[in-house]
TrEMBL record:
<protein>
    <submittedName>
        <fullName>LRV domain-containing protein</fullName>
    </submittedName>
</protein>
<dbReference type="InterPro" id="IPR011989">
    <property type="entry name" value="ARM-like"/>
</dbReference>
<dbReference type="InterPro" id="IPR016024">
    <property type="entry name" value="ARM-type_fold"/>
</dbReference>
Length: 466
């Protein structure tokens, strides 16, 4: 099959107007991963799921098991598949990219059954990409197999430190190391920690090791005496650091060390303001370990959000649990990174802020906010003449954009804009067929809802599908 024919066939699998009969013919007659694309569309018809569940080829059943467009109930039909390879994929779930693009979770009772599956890999893969209930995570952390316990530690997003801490004493060293990694704790005696610091291959490695070390007064003094800037920065981020050393590091000669000290959560605003720190609008700050473990702490997150330190406000913006008044406060923050992080992490970030941030952001992740339901649609046609192709492609999201404008933008110099217009049902069929012959847009054109049935048949015929 020619590459162009494969690209068009792949696009056709995602076409929302493609009849079920077309999808079934692709599933039965195509070969390779293109069959999996049938389960990547926004909605998968039950007849297609029926065909996949009963299909003799486990590859086809596996495509349904990890299909991003299939519902949790549809994927759950394979939870009792006789092949553990298929069940492990049901357990893992679809790998969905983008913070707000969520795959439908499996039913709770199915998750519980998979957590007790006889096959170790099925249990180890459970929850890899799709969340499962906390009770199921607890079952996995208590699993008799070390591999399952280790996987659960890594797969559980934002696992409560109370659930992780007991596994720091797990009988299996691999599990202990996983627990230490998740808890951002460095295991070992003071002498062993000093050895780990010396053996670190980079400044970042030394900093991370020291930041997670369980400090004694003697160990803290010994590390401080090394004179290593990265070691001091790690000490500044270590929550067990004696206050006398916190005070000493607050006036350290290194700006990086002073900044790390200024980001300690226990400091008063007065002590924080007395430190000579600097955060520029383009400076990146890696959140210390305490941030991930404190996102549900309302008192600490409020203190961070109300801080005069932009770094602390950025940490607050990582929390999806902020109340409305703090969301409004951070949405108006003078620091762009604070506003951007709020958009990336909070489900109630204001719609206009989502749009504003997308237009201003220089990062490739700026379009990740589009699936948010509050992202504006009305009035986006005003960006048709924008110099930014990322703004022009938003026109297709405006329900009031006229077909003439969609057709005009289908001739845009940017292939991304032309593809966005090709997927729009308002694009005239004649122009859509022209884009179907353009190597840069043929895949998107095959997804276009306005594609005539005769063109769909031609795509199938070119791909050799009866």
């Amino acid at each position: 099959m020619k590459r162009a024919d494969l690209v068009r066939l792949d696009g056709l699998t995602r076409n929302p107007a493609a009849p079920e009969s077309v999808l079934l013919r692709i599933l039965a007659g195509a070969e390779g991963p293109v069959r999996g694309s049938v389960f990547e569309r926004n909605e998968v018809p039950e007849s297609v799921c029926d065909a996949a569940v009963s299909h003799p080829d486990r590859e086809v059943r596996g495509y349904l098991a990890v299909g991003r467009g299939a519902s949790g109930a549809q994927r759950a039909r394979l939870a009792a598949d006789p092949d553990p390879w298929v069940r492990s994929r049901v357990a893992a779930g679809p790998e969905v990219h983008g913070r707000w693009r969520k795959a439908d979770p499996l039913p709770d009772e199915v998750c519980a059954a998979l957590a007790r599956d006889e096959d170790r890999q099925v249990r180890a893969w459970l929850g890899m990409f799709v969340p499962v209930p906390d009770e199921v995570w607890a079952l996995l952390l208590a699993d008799p197999e070390p591999e399952v316990r280790k996987s659960a530690l890594y797969n559980w997003p934002h696992a409560p430190i109370e659930a992780v801490r007991p596994l720091l004493d797990d009988p299996d060293p691999v599990v202990r190391r996983a627990a230490a990694h998740v808890a951002d704790v460095v295991l070992g005696s003071p002498a062993e920690i000093v050895e780990q610091v010396a053996a670190a291959e980079s400044g970042w490695g030394r900093r991370r090791t020291v930041a997670g070390a369980v400090l004694t007064e003697e160990l803290a003094d010994r590390l401080y005496a090394t004179g290593d800037e990265d070691v001091r920065a790690g000490l500044a981020a270590n929550q067990g650091l004696p206050d006398r050393l916190v005070a000493a590091l607050a006036s350290d000669a290194s700006p990086a060390v002073r900044l790390a000290v200024s980001l300690r959560p226990e400091l008063t605003e007065e002590r924080r303001a007395a430190i000579d720190w600097h955060v520029g609008p383009k400076d990146r700050i890696q959140p210390p370990a305490w941030v991930a473990h404190s996102l549900t702490d309302p008192v600490l997150m409020r203190a961070c959000a109300e801080s005069a330190h932009p770094g602390m406000r950025r940490f607050a913006a990582y929390s999806p649990h902020l109340p409305g008044d703090l969301v409004a406060r951070l949405a108006a923050d003078e620091d762009f990174v604070v506003r951007m992080l709020l958009c990336e992490n909070h489900p109630a970030a204001p719609g206009e802020l989502l749009l504003e941030t997308l237009l201003a952001s220089p990062f490739i992740t700026r379009f990740e906010q589009l699936p948010q339901p509050q992202f504006p649609r009305a009035g986006l046609a005003r960006f048709a003449a924008s110099e930014d192709p990322g703004a022009r492609l938003l026109v297709a999201r405006d329900p009031e954009a006229p077909a003439e404008l969609i057709e005009r933008l289908s001739h845009d110099p940017s292939a991304g804009v032309r593809c966005a217009m090709a997927r729009d049902a308002r694009l005239p069929a004649g122009r859509l067929l022209e884009l179907l012959d353009d190597p840069e847009t043929m895949g998107a054109a095959a997804e276009g809802p306005a594609l005539p049935l005769t063109a769909m048949e031609a795509i199938l015929a070119a791909a050799g599908i009866p």
